[in-house]
């Protein structure tokens, strides 16, 4: 089955990391939890008789093609609404257009990382989302919420999963069903290394940005994140200390392959059996479907281990939503489209189901809306590159355990210069967990939070 021509790494780097424009300009002072004016609320819907024209922005690439097909389904349901669907460099254009209010789209795809810090330029959608709130992922609602109001229409949910080589675990006598805690994961890695002395079974990310994003997935499992709802740094905590200590233990025991996501060295280690355990988001499914030629069919997915027995078996890693600019010309029609794509069966089926773009369906995320995530009604098909595994059920079961979070602060991307880089030093054995926490907290507070 074809998959995206660009690994999700590049998409996310643009999504969370293109903030030079968004973070350095006037919006930098607008931290989550604050706003300079009363939010503009959108409360009405045009209904079945809707008529008019809207401009919608999305990123170019395969996902644009997916939404193009899904918007065709919307056009059939609302034939009197003209949708101009445009491929745009959102990271370069959207922040500035929100500030100036000129040449704005009526709606746009945008990253959860950006929404909390730019709420003053967006419509308050709380009343419109209210009928769907109880059946929408608590995590997606929380990262779209500022001062108790919702500013993004939740779209994809990116649950963390444990990707593993089934054949290597079997040879080492490791039962994947027994990997219930992160201590179990270390024990499995030791068994793999005992079987193959050259094995360094657990992937740890060498790219500082993706490494920090991965760390946040592990923190989200425990119900925390780098900042609270008011933007206060909370790295100095039991939860982060637990994760960082686990990382250092794995490093000290020689159980880690420290490589960049799906770069040449990483792929080689995956293909030759050096790496066999990859805790990563659902979008890692791209690798066995598109990149891992020699080991295609040998990889499987399972829930992440828990940090404590009975704890959450997944956390979110990345994610996107839809926003409606406060100065949009036809915001009601934009809402109608996003309601259709996210909350109506013909819409979310058109997005995730088999299409000419993805014959087996879109496998790199799952919907945020619970009724669209039924294990017994899969939107995408079993994945041949995973030995025919029902990835849908694994992913939706994991997604159901993801805890709520807080809005992502405006300074998150810049904090990679401190936390992301220190995390690399930890993985290299050059820093201890407490040093990472103390140094990163001090520099983030001094250089980012206090200057906001």
Indicate the overall shape. globular
- How many E-type strands? 16
Any low-confidence stretches, pLDDT <50, length ≥5? 1-36
Q: Which percent bin holds the helix content?
A: 25-40%
The tally of helices reads 18
- The span between the termini is 46 Å
Structural class: alpha/beta
Average pLDDT taken over every residue: 90
- Strand neighbour order, sheet with most strands: 3-2-4-15-8
Q: What portion of residues belong to β-strands?
A: 5-15%
Largest sheet: 5 strands, mixed
Radius of gyration: 21 Å
Layout: helices, strands, pairs:
Blueprint: H1 8-17, H2 20-24, E1 40-41, E2 52-58, H3 62-77, E3 81-87, H4 90-100, E4 107-111, H5 112-115, E5 123-124, H6 126-129, H7 138-143, E6 145-146, E7 149-150, E8 153-154, E9 156-157, E10 160-165, H8 166-171, H9 182-195, E11 202-205, H10 208-221, H11 238-252, E12 256-259, H12 264-271, E13 277-281, H13 286-291, E14 299-303, E15 320-323, H14 331-343, H15 345-352, E16 366-367, H16 391-399, H17 419-427, H18 433-449
Parallel strand pairs: 1-5, 2-3, 2-4, 11-12
Antiparallel strand pairs: 4-15, 6-7, 8-15, 9-16, 10-13, 10-14
